[in-house]
Amino acid sequence: MRLGSLTRRLGLAVVAIFVVAACGSSGGGGGTASCSESKAKTTTSAAACGGMDALVAAAKAEGKLNVIALPRDWANYGKELDTFAAKYGIAITSDNPDGSSQDEVNAVNQLGTTSRAPDVLDIGMAVALANTTLFAPYKVTTWADILDTQKESTGVWFQDYGGFMSIGYDSSKVPTITSIDDLFKPEFKGKVALNGDPTKANAALNGVMMANLAEGGSLDDVSKGVDFFHRLKVAGNFSKTQATTATVKNGTTPVVFDWDYLSAAHGKDVPAWKVFVPNNAVLGGYYAQAVNKNAPHPAAARLWEEFLYSDEGQNIWLQGLARPVRQAAMTKSGTVDASAAAALPPVNGTPQFMSDSQATAAKNYLVANWLKAIS
Amino acid sequence: MTTAGSPAVTTNVGRPLLGGRRFSLDWVGALPFFAYVGLFLALPTAIIAIGAFFDANNSLTLDNFVHLGRNYVVQATITTTVVSAVTALLGAFLGALLAYAIATGNPNGVLRRTLVSASGVLAQFGGVTLAFAFIASIGPAGFVYLFFQSHGFDYYSKSLWLFDTPGLIVVYLYFQIPLMVLVFLPALDGIKPQWREATESLGGSTWHYWRHVAGPLLFPAFLGGVLLLFANAFSAYATANALINQGAPVLAQQISNGLSSEVGAVEPGFAKAIAVEMVVIVTVITILYSLLQRRTARWL
Questions:
Q1: Is B139 in contact with A242 (Cβ distance < 8 A)?
Q2: How many whole angstroms separate alpha carbon A72 and alpha carbon B18?
Q3: Mean per-residue pLDDT for B92-114?
Q4: Mean pLDDT of B95-107
């Protein structure tokens, strides 16, 4: 008897759950303007999927977002992730936060259509251009604010934030740097490091290219930059260990070539940290966003992009001292976070950007000559 | 009962097929082991070896092996082999001395128990934590260096050797010596004091004892230790990477570059060819070892 009543109650509960679930899904669709999963998978804008509200509802129904290779202390990504999760009630799985751009692409290839595959990618331009077939085209609502040179015309990739290559240094340990040739002084013995190996890490390759420009080289030929580090090594000033937050904090690498937005973050640990960008070598670099075409949470993936390119998302990057791609447009419209913009390291001079073929030429030269130059 | 595939058939033709021998099922117990080895050793090795013959477009090629002749790979091969050999020999020698000191001490003493447990921990201490422990202590901003420097001794005056090959050797020894203690101690414990007494009562000197009794007995175990230490250092990646990031001086780092370079230097097939090169080097050394082992153990 008791067992019977229990079964009946269980049955009722199951029915109730189904009813609630049914209400939930039909409610989420929002009547005519619905953004179903199959639609979200291929939609190229929020408008094409029933508008922003429909996209939000569909993303909430998915309830999850997989991101990869986003360190919390990189360009303020910690805040981006937390704000997005709180705002939309979507749980974020952040895999391999310290991975490289290539690791992201490898994950897309290896995880395929499984539910663990990354939904969205934040990658260097070389990797973005080499893997365009893996991405779904998507144009965020603020698409028009992104310069044509900073996006693929259909939305396969679009640049997100960037900065300038800089020399960061602990002014309590080394003298003020006003020119790149200062680094040959004996006070810099064993103190100058790169953020990674330039044959592997994008930031380090740009570090060598920046030295190359400062030494009178051009974007087409990185040899003067390699020669610069060779002479730095011969002078005993180049440190072959990788600069990380830990080595900067404990003083092992008091002088680091890195993106200004990453370098400026060391000011938290080292109060006397300064960031220097040589006037004759203002080398810019941007990362790009892309949506995995096999994204397990297609609506959430697209909503994440909408969030990153909203004024709110762009200002969060800016607060992390990265220069968001819509900064110029937002400055014009007055929606930019002015105090965050004022905190950016000063840059004078004409910014230069490496083209894809120039980056490839630099990579090929480095692969063939780097080890020899620094050993 | 049939004896299909029975070892009796293949190994011993002269025997009657269904002689007194019964078909043994003893090998069943080893099945999980073989399955494990197959899944986690043979299969990955095969995947890598096959992958090394394909290029980025999945067509057959030998280029990956031709590329092994690139000067930076040759240099990395030499560095890796030299570092592994030096730390294996030094680690084995110093570890054997330490193990001997432990073995001749009180078998239940505090010293022995402390050293053996410490070795157990330190032999597994590696990677980023170990590298950073060295950076933070003897590195150019480490307290040990600053102390010596303030007392007029600058051990980096010539070069910053910690972030170069000598640094690798010093840091590797930190886990090589304890590992040798662990693998060599049982061999030393097997040496009976009575053998020494026997040598002496027959008029032998200490030299005779070591040359003709203890030395030949311990040499095979010592060689085995050297081989283990060599393989241990040869395959180390994280420690080397945290210490020397520039130029990928170690082969395992070259593999990593080939697999995850974000500046476009990704060559998975080439990375696999480097892995095959490493397998071949270790195999050759293992064969040399077993030849030597057979020779030294012949009289036993």
A1: no
A2: 71
A3: 91
A4: 90
